[in-house]
Amino acid sequence: MAKLWHRLFVVVFLVLSVLVIKNTYQKSVDQEQDKKDVSEGTLKKAEQRKNGIMVLCYHRIVKDNLSNNIIRKLTNNSQIHEYAIDVNTFQNQLDYLKKRGVRFISMQQMLEMVKKGRPLKHQYAVLTFDDFDQTVHDNGLPILKAYKIPCTVFTVTGITGSYHSGTKLVSWSQIKHMANNRLITVGLHTNNLHYLLHNQSAVITADKYNEFKQDYRESQKLMVHYLGKEAAFFAYPYGSETPRVQRYLDNRNVTTFSLNIGLINEQTDITHSLPRTMIDKRTWHNVVVPWVK
After folding, report:
1. Angle 243-250/209-227 helices, nearest 10 degrees?
2. How far apart are CA 187 and CA 223, in angstroms?
3. How confident is the model at residue 5 (pLDDT cuts 50, 70, 90)?
4. What is the C-alpha to C-alpha distance for residues 261 and 239, in angstroms, rounded to an integer?
5. Which spans are transmembrane here (predicted)?
């Protein structure tokens, strides 16, 4: 009898847990607007099989387990279906690139190569993660450490440690600990402007320009406070920018990234935002695979 009650308790607990998680994710769906972080289009034919640097953008690295599979079935949340890649897929993608001779480099190595202006002799990949949530910390970074692959995490400095769009962001104490690893670079994803106004990124809304400058200064203050130095890299939320914002960041020697598909090479103008491909099933097969030799 005791075993029966125990089993019933476990079943009820699992059902309630799934319903709570589903409700949490569904709320973020209801709050989502039409615009999303996406890389549209395909790789130009002239860039296929060519040497150069491709910057890859990931968001969530989730475990392929029963609870996540149930959530995937119960919700249409883009955080699960579009922004999340399971651990096995992520590792398989890294293996695919390594086996085909793609070399993984850091942001700083990329800048040094471009500034030298010499023709690139290989294909290179730079890994980036937007938002820096707990799934990346727990599931993605251990794989990169094992492979000795560098990466850059773009953090929303004003909401670290909180829940954002149904996912838990990494705390400052965790960021500080991870920043001690030479493989990890910390960049900015705004302080608290990662949201939409009238289906547009708050960063590019005209009346938000002065607010953006204040937001940027606050981000850098937090970087100095927790990590001892300012960030040198900035990823535009939703990939959206304006010439005025870009000039502001370039004047401060900050390298910026959009979500436009393309390669970086020795002729790339780094005073403009650099192309970056958000990885999902479509872009992996339509952009990355055609590029790799």
Report:
1. 30
2. 9
3. low
4. 11
5. none
Q: How many helices (H) and strands (E) does the chain have?
A: 12, 14
What residues make up the domain containing 102? 2-291
> Do the beta carbons of residue 256 and residue 54 sit within 8 Å?
no
CATH number of domain containing 158: 3.20.20.370
The total number of residues written for the chain in this structure: 293
- Tell me what pLDDT residue 26 has: 47
Distance CA 257, CA 203 (A): 13
At 237-287, the pLDDT tens digits run 999 999 999 999 999 999 999 999 999 999 999 999 999 999 999 999 999
Give pTM, 2 decimals: 0.85
Question: How many Cβ atoms sit within 10 Å of the Cβ of residue 112?
Answer: 11
Total domain count for the chain? 1
What residue type is assigned to position 226 of the chain? Y
Structural contact between residues 130 and 57, judged by C-beta atoms closer than 8 angstroms: yes
Tell me which residue of 57, 235, 60, 55 sits closest to 140, measured CA to CA.
60
The CA distance from 274 to 160, in Å, is: 25
Pairing relationship of beta strands 52-58 and 277-278 according to DSSP bridges: parallel
Q: Are 67 and 113 in contact (CB under 8 A)?
A: no
Per residue in 98-151, pLDDT (tens digit) is 999 999 999 999 999 999 999 999 999 999 999 999 999 999 999 999 999 999
Q: What is the DSSP letter of 60?
A: E
